[in-house]
């Protein structure tokens, strides 16, 4: 019977019980989709900036 006061035994037991229970990072969209959405956002901000500058000059 293992000694429950031995830190190595307790650590081994905890790690064995946990297995691969570590949480993984959330999955985001694919890189292609992310690039398209990012490009669209950049174009939208640029277009809004141009409209704002032209409106102030008028």
Arithmetic mean of pLDDT: 80
**Helix content percent band:** 55-70%
Strand content: under 5%
Unreliably modeled segments: none
Give the N-to-C terminal Cα separation.
Answer: 87 Å
Record field, number of beta strands: 0
How many alpha or pi helices?
2
Listing every helix as H and every strand as E from the N terminus to the C terminus, the arrangement reads: HH
Shape: rod-shaped
In terms of quaternary structure, the protein is single chain
Helix/strand class: mainly alpha
How is the main sheet built? none
Rg, rounded, reads: 28 Å
What is this structure's SSE topology?
Elements: H1 7-18, H2 31-57
What does this molecule look like?
By secondary structure, this protein is mainly α. The chain contains two helices and no strands. The chain has helices at residues 7-18, 31-57.
Task: Provide keyphrases for this structure.
mainly alpha, 2 helices, about 60 residues
């Amino acid at each position: 019977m293992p000694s429950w006061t031995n830190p190595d035994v307790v650590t081994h037991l905890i790690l064995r019980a946990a297995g691969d229970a570590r949480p993984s990072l959330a999955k985001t969209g694919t890189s292609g989709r992310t690039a398209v959405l990012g490009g669209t956002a950049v174009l939208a901000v640029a277009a809004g900036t141009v409209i704002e500058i032209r409106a102030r000059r008028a």
